[in-house]
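Slide 14.
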Amino acid sequence: MFGGYYGLTITAYDEVYILTIPGFVWYKGPSTGDGRHYHGCQHVGGGQVLSMGGVNVTRAGISWSQVDPWSYGLQVFNMKSMSWTTEYNAKPPVYQGMQAARDWYAAGYAF
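Slide 15: predicted structure.
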């Protein structure tokens, strides 16, 4: 889960949360530094999630003349390295999950 908007304070969030299944444990990922809402996210293979579009709203509203810091409104989140990048890997290695989740399951907390 990435980004979102809280209307009462007019805040666009830049946080990432990952829910592990079947353990149902949430992990907080790194912030992008650029809050987003009205965007879409799609798993695109190999533990990569593509975030497309969106805007950052502030109390001043949406500035349509402001240059988007994301090239073409795109960013890729790598769930294994827990990092944001502008590059998509068309042939990623097999996704093994992030280390923190693997450690949690290895400690015997899985159902």
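Speaker note: The chain has one domain: 2-109.
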